[in-house]
Amino acid sequence: MKNKLIYPAAIILLHAMACGGSGSENKNESNLVENTPTETVGQSGVIDDVSNPNIVQVAVGSKDHTTLVAAVKAASLVDALSNAGPFTVFAPVNAAFDKLPAGTVEGLLKPEKKADLQHILEYHTYVGVLKIEYMNDGQEYEQVSGQKIKITKKDGKVFVNDVAEIVASIPTSNGIIHVINEVLLPPAK
What is the DSSP letter of 93? Predict the structure, then answer.
């Protein structure tokens, strides 16, 4: 019975997508990612003023996450983090990036360091929603990078890898952002 309903629904959906027009009605609206040709815009290019913002849209709107947004763009992860998810992103504030040795961020933003930057950002991302109340002291979570982070609870505060304190949590349409005050550096493989 399920298959009898799924196939007609899929056909209707495909027909609706094919008849949806050229998308020219959005040409005058600003894209989430500047300087991205509209022919290659993925999920991040969807303009929707009604739904709750996704992880990337929230980060773009935060003055404290401009370095993280620049890194996500340089690593070509905007579309991935704009998809349905759900994701948990541990999002370092600008001041956290400022603590890194001079030239580190600038070096990672270079095209030849894209793979390294992606690996670091993937270490900040978990597939699924990890709310603070789900986290227990000593618990480990495998990140998108394939490496684990460890949660520590001390004096009512929650830390990632004993160094990055979760200072705020922001629910989004495709997951949750945990604002942290340190950059998480993945262990050597």
Answer: -
Residue 103 Cα distances to 15, 36, 65, 99, 163, angstroms: 51, 26, 18, 11, 22
Domains of the chain plus CATH, in order, are 53-180 (2.30.180.10)
41: nearest Cα among 26, 55, 52, 51: 26
- Side chain identity, residue 170: I
Q: Give 108-128 pLDDT, tens digit per residue.
A: 999 999 999 999 999 999 999
Chain position carrying tokens 């989430």? 32
For the chain, where are the E strands, in sequence order?
87-92, 125-127, 140-142, 148-154, 157-160, 164-172, 175-180
pTM of the predicted structure, to 2 decimals = 0.74
Q: Which amino acid is at 51?
A: S
